[in-house]
Amino acid sequence: MSEARENLYLQAKLAEATERYGDMAELMKEMVQLWGLPTEEERNLLLVSFKNLVAKKRFAWRVLNTIGINCKHDKDNKIGHTYRETVALELKDICNEVTQMISNTLLDLCNSEENIENKVFYLKMKADHLRYITEVLVEEDEKKSVVEDADTAYKEALKSAEKLPNSHPNKLGLALNYSVFQYEILKNVKTACALAKQGLDDAVEELNNHNENVFNDSELIMQLLQDNLSLWTQEQDSKSESNDDNKSENSDQ
Q1: How many C-beta neighbours within 10 Å does residue 82 have?
Q2: Which of 53, 153, 192, 202 is the most buried (most CB within 10 A)?
């Protein structure tokens, strides 16, 4: 690693330690512009910087949205709506910056077979940031377009991930996040459950066969998949019971 690249990396680490994620993101963007495809450690710093920037915007938007829903006065509601739109625009700007960098630069550097892991990582990152945009969109046509783009990126990532071990954290993380997309954005509980279960079952089977590819982050992601699957399955069961009760009530009347 060149001295200049190492200096940028160390500065980014300091920015992370002090939670200056805006500085961190700028440093990592500069690294991509100067040296192209990041190393695994640099790649993770890139993800952490933008993920934390977006997380603050997502939290702020959710708080403002909740306040708006509970607001009783028109004047307060208008002010809250304007402020919420400002936060939504800031979030969209950050996410668009990420997705454009991935589409215009990083994915072009991941075409070889040896870069499949990177390709899955960046397609997932692109899809995730498109998903974050959909959370704050109100206009239906715009939201539909971004949802379709996110779904396409997730599916492309899944296709590329077929070449990775089932217990690889990037593949498991993709199953986790795509299932969340199905659940939260598309409201498709059955598909979300199926994706989570398939990803979890495939990884467990591979690990039970004593596969050499054991990854440090896999266990945590598998637990998150299991937690979501349990929660969503309970929701499905509750809805089924509710429908059965309603049918009984209707037939008794």
Answers
A1: 10
A2: 153
- Cβ-Cβ contacts under 8 Å for 101 (sequence gap 6 or more): 29, 32
Alpha helix ranges (H) inside 71-139: 74-101, 116-134
Ordered alpha helix ranges (H), 103-210: 116-134, 140-161, 169-184, 189-208
DSSP string for 200-241: HHHHHHHHHTT-S---TTHHHHHHHHHHHHHHHHHHHHHHHH
Q: How far apart are the first and last CA of the chain?
A: 77
The Cα–Cα gap between 166 and 63 comes to: 37
pLDDT tens-place string over residues 87-116: 999 999 999 999 999 999 999 999 888 899
pTM of the model: 0.89
Here the tokens at position 24 are 């961190």
Q: Which residues neighbour 47 within 8 Å (Cβ) at sequence distance 6 or greater?
A: 121, 125
Mean pLDDT across the chain, nearest whole number? 89
- Total residues found in the chain within this entry: 253
Do 10 and 24 touch, CB atoms closer than 8 A?
no
pLDDT in tens, 129-182: 999 999 999 899 999 999 999 999 999 999 999 999 999 999 999 999 999 999
Give the integer Cα–Cα distance in Å for 178 and 133: 15
> Above 50 in pLDDT, residue 117?
yes
- What single-letter DSSP state applies at residue 19? T
